[in-house]
Structure prediction request, 278 residues.
Amino acid sequence: MASSVVRPAPLPRIGALRAAGGVSTLAIAVRPDISCLLAIGLSAWTFADAVFPAAAPGRGLVAYVATGIVAAGGLITSLVLHEVGHAIVGRWIGLTPRHISLSLFGGVTVFDREPGTPGQACALALAGPVANLLVAVVAGIVHVVLVDAGADPLAAAAAASIVVINLGITLVNLIPALPLDGGHAARAVLGVVLRRPDIAGAIADAIGRALGWTMVGVAVLASASGDAAIAVWAALIGFAVHDHMQRVVPMTRSMSRAPLAPVLRRDDARRVARRPAA
Prediction:
């Protein structure tokens, strides 16, 4: 899961960022949580145990584990690039990205304020999935080149895994449910269509909660069928969605009324101006 959230905060000094830990990319501080190590471990285990043995049979355990770690690193890199996409578009529309936070459950880009218009909100939300789509295209080209060159099937499988990872991140984040990017985009569009940003936020909120419980249900079914990898990932996603809904969505729902209200008021003013006098 990956999402972009806006939270007013004073701009920290460079020294403060360094003291807090993390690295920087494109002059944006990236703060990985310790749970990222668990994400790498779970990802490496999933690839080494279920994916690569089927894609390149007959290799040793060490080869599968090593390639799994590489693919897990590709997952973390893909999450960072997703958030960098948000940050780049945020700067383009005049926002200031404070930092990028990474955890077991995905990434969050923190900005200084909300986008000013629904169009900006949509552009900001969709920037992350577009970034992952571009990464998938590049990784797909690498995969084709490796296959045509007769390279090690395990290397080709690793490139293919990056394609699948980024397509997965793209598709999941386009689901119109908070806290996913598709939910933020849907909230902005529905706020204009319905002329009620609060109702739009409630709809995206409800879909998000339904998504969370659905993933928990998938985890239960997968566990009953003996598919441990799917059970673990589905449970993590489900509980991550619910945790995010409890902590972040109430704040962003109340803040979402501000950017759309001026737009709707301006639209009302234009309607009045065009109305013929009695």
User: Anything to note?
Assistant: Residues 2-22, 251-278 have pLDDT under 50 and may be disordered. Residues 1-174 form one domain. The chain is about 70% helix and 10% strand. Residues 61-92 form the longest helix (32 residues).
